[in-house]
Amino acid sequence: EQQQQTVPISAACGQVVSGVVNLTANLNCSGDGIIVGGPNTVINMNGFSITGPGQDSSKVAIMVPNVDNVVVNGPGSLSNFQAGVLLTGANGFQINSVILSNNQIGTFMTGAENAQVQQNIVQNNNLGIVSQSSSGSKLSSNLMSSNLLAGITFVNTRGSTIDMNNIHGSQNGVFVDGQSADNMINAN
User: Fold this and answer.
1) pTM of the full predicted structure?
2) Residues 6 or more apart from 3 whose CB is under 8 A from it?
3) Of 39, 64, 103, 112, which one is least surrounded by beta carbons within 10 A?
4) Which of 95, 141, 144, 152 is nearest to 124 (CA)?
């Protein structure tokens, strides 16, 4: 009986990945960056960057479509995409120590549960972190500067926490719409 060993794979632009994924070089992508194809995937940025074709490109640096417990570990950077990270219907996502800059949206979560966005630098995006129809998110200890429209935006988001963030240089620091409820916002 042979034991299967998980060998970390290195990532390329447009690749569908799962398991343990290591960036081994900077990626300059003309399309999407990395698409997560399975649960419990860990992406180690290892100090490298994923750079896209531009804010108006409809492309995403890291796409997490309906897969749970995905972790993105910095240091590293995601820039020049429509979204640095796009979470759709994912549960238990975590991102830390990543620079999200010069995107339309740094991190966009829709239908996501229990996402943790912590200790990142989110700068020079149109919108820093957006949560739509999501719940249980924890956004804390992020440094957010010069995100044009808003640092953090909640639309129809419940039971989430925004704390210990440093947010400046945006039209709105934190914007929460009328459909959002039971959120804790403190010490920002």
Assistant:
1) 0.94
2) none
3) 39
4) 144
